[in-house]
């Protein structure tokens, strides 16, 4: 059972499109958009040269003609059936869990940002090479999602070529495969590498959109609810009927376990640890952070009454 199925954790995020709800709505929507674009190109016999010039990524189009939308549109185009199947298969395997972990809005922001960054880095690297260059495919963004997943679950196994492989091995293979044989000339290795680097920075520096731009999100991403069975007994302060650390009425200032500006990020790390290892693996300090989160949630609910 994952952390998001547990009784004490509920998301207040609801960031995916309502018509495509359920598990990982934005992950499913991204896959659907890619499939529609791929089939639409072929069903309507759209001129391939027109698509390449205006929507595939190219250094000339982006830097000389100002077609900056190519940084994103190229991510939703694919060269062939195996190209799109491979990318969407990997995205579905790892993307749905990352969307559950981060929430729909943050996952969507992460995916789109990874697409733009990875395509931009590829375009910069190709800008100094002679000849025409075009790039299509979601590989850079998918590599970012795959890397992020691996940073959380490096030893989790998936089946690749009918063999169980830990995620860190899959990530290494995904990175080095373009350098083998003729792959280096046909695969945008720079985009893959940029996507992986972006994912590392995203996790290392906690670059969630809801944290770096909280005013635009409209409401908090997390809603923590602890049932009474998990509440710890509180010590009474001598004879006054108050719990330690509370003022009269229960609304006084408390000493936080961690710095206020780091509390949400620390709480997310603890929730992710519970998902990986279970509640029993938490340290005493991590248990105190959860208790404080529970107390804050109760106070917010009482304020709304």
Tell me the layout of helices and strands.
Blueprint: E1 9-11, H1 25-43, H2 48-54, H3 59-64, H4 70-73, H5 81-102, H6 104-126, H7 139-152, E2 157-160, E3 163-166, H8 167-176, H9 183-186, H10 189-204, H11 209-212, E4 222-224, E5 236-237, E6 242-243, H12 263-277, H13 284-304
Antiparallel strand pairs: 1-4, 2-3, 5-6
Helix pairs in contact: 1-5, 5-6, 5-7, 6-7, 6-10, 7-8, 7-10, 12-13
Task: Please provide a written account of the structure.
The chain is mostly helical. The protein has two domains: 21-212, Rhomboid-like fold (Up-down Bundle), CATH 1.20.1540.10; 226-304, no CATH class. Helices cover 54% and strands 6% of the residues. The chain has helices at residues 25-43, 48-54, 59-64, 70-73, 81-102, 104-126, 139-152, 167-176, 183-186, 189-204, 209-212, 263-277, 284-304, and strands at residues 9-11, 157-160, 163-166, 222-224, 236-237, 242-243. A hairpin with a 4-residue loop joins strand 5 (236-237) and strand 6. The protein is elongated. The relative contact order is 0.11. Mean pLDDT is 79; it is low at 1-12 and 216-252.
């Amino acid at each position: 059972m994952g952390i998001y199925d547990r009784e004490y954790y509920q998301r207040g995020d609801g960031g995916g499109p309502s018509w495509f709800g359920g598990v990982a709505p934005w992950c499913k929507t991204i896959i659907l958009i890619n499939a529609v674009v791929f089939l639409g190109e072929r069903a309507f016999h759209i001129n391939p040269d027109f698509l390449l010039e205006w929507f595939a990524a190219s250094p000339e189009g982006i830097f000389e003609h100002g077609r900056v939308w190519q940084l994103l549109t190229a991510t939703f185009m694919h060269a062939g059936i195996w190209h799109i199947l491979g990318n969407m298969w990997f995205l579905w395997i790892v993307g749905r869990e990352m969307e559950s972990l981060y929430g729909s809005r943050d996952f969507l922001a992460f995916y789109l940002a990874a697409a733009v960054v990875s395509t931009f880095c590829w375009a910069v690297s190709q800008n100094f090479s002679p000849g025409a260059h075009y790039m299509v495919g979601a590989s850079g963004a998918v590599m970012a999602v795959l890397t992020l997943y691996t940073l959380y679950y490096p030893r989790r196994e998936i089946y690749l070529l009918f063999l169980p492989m830990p995620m860190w091995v899959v990530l290494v293979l995904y990175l080095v495969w373009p350098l083998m044989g003729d792959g280096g000339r046909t695969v945008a290795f720079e985009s893959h590498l940029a996507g992986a680097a972006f994912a590392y920075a995203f996790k290392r520096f906690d670059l969630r959109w809801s944290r770096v731009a909280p005013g635009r999100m409209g409401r908090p991403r997390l809603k923590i609810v602890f049932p009474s069975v998990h509440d710890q007994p509180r010590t009474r302060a001598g004879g006054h009927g108050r719990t330690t650390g509370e003022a009269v009425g229960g609304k006084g200032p408390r000493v936080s376990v961690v710095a206020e500006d780091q509390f949400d990020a620390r709480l997310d790390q603890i929730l992710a640890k519970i998902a990986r290892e279970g509640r029993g693996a938490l340290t005493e300090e991590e248990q105190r952070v959860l208790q404080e989160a529970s107390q804050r949630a109760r106070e917010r609910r009482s304020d709304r009454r």
